[in-house]
Automatic annotation (TrEMBL):
Protein name in UniProt: CobQ/CobB/MinD/ParA nucleotide binding domain-containing protein
PANTHER family: AAA+ ATPASE DOMAIN-CONTAINING PROTEIN (PTHR43384:SF3), SEPTUM SITE-DETERMINING PROTEIN MIND HOMOLOG, CHLOROPLASTIC-RELATED (PTHR43384)
GO biological process: negative regulation of cell division
GO (cellular component) term, any one: cytoplasmic side of plasma membrane
Domain CobQ/CobB/MinD/ParA nucleotide binding, chain residue ranges per copy: 7-223
Length: 224
């Protein structure tokens, strides 16, 4: 299964990804976390690694090489990409937990992140999972990745919603976009909730929008 974790910027997507990965690993799954957020630089630390993986973008010649391949039918020459075919140091491993990174914006004026969106889409499309393997994708904030078609090979979408109404509205848009491309498993998880009262109000608001809430994580000042 391939799970996409989406939401408004700052809603806590990476925190949810790390918690999901830890729980799935504890239940015996081999978990591949795909860092598809070109702006977030700290996911590897949250997962317990001491360094980030070399971006997959380097496999296709960096941003320059990727731009050249974007006009070709296939960015990757392989028909499928099993996890064990991803070369080191592009794949980090630790006790059944694995991490790959699509790429990051590292310099001023280096251009937009569109090539990384293409690479995310093509990698997830060709990623081949065996029984017992699970991929969790930390998406960039907002909804642009839906416009790029990154979710076309995703099985489930988990929307991270925090108390501000704007987060609810972004969650609604994500729900509609995911449902619109045929993804049947689209859920919301509440995050950074300060009280039971706010949790109830958020759940009611989302249920009225026909969005199923599958969990609630309360605000914790120790997480920052």
């Amino acid at each position: 299964m391939k799970i996409s974790v989406c939401g408004k910027g700052g809603s806590g997507k990476s925190t949810i990804v790390s918690l999901l990965a830890s729980e799935a690993q504890a239940r015996g799954h081999h978990v591949l976390v795909v860092d598809s957020d070109e702006s977030n630089l700290g996911l590897f630390r949250m997962l317990g690694f001491d360094r980030p993986p070399t971006p997959l973008m380097e496999l296709v010649g960096g941003k320059k090489g990727l731009k050249q391949k974007m006009s070709q039918p296939n960015v990757f020459t392989e028909a499928t990409i099993p996890i064990d075919h991803i070369p080191s140091p592009h794949l980090l491993k630790r006790d059944g937990l694995m991490l790959v990174s699509i790429g990051k914006i590292l310099q001023s004026l280096e251009g937009c992140a569109c090539p990384m969106g293409v690479l995310s889409r093509e990698f997830l499309k060709k990623l081949s999972l065996k029984e017992g393997e699970l991929a969790i994708v930390d998406m960039e904030a907002g909804v642009e990745h839906f416009g790029r078609g990154v979710e076309t090979s995703i099985d489930s979408v988990l929307i991270v919603v925090e108390p501000p109404l704007e987060s609810v509205n972004v969650g609604q848009k994500i729900h509609d976009l995911a449902s619109g491309i045929g993804i049947k498993n689209v859920w919301a998880i509440l995050n950074k909730v300060p009280s039971d009262e706010i949790a109830t109000r958020l759940k009611t608001e989302l249920q009225e929008r026909h969005i199923e809430v599958v969990g609630c994580i309360y605000f914790d000042a120790d997480i920052f």
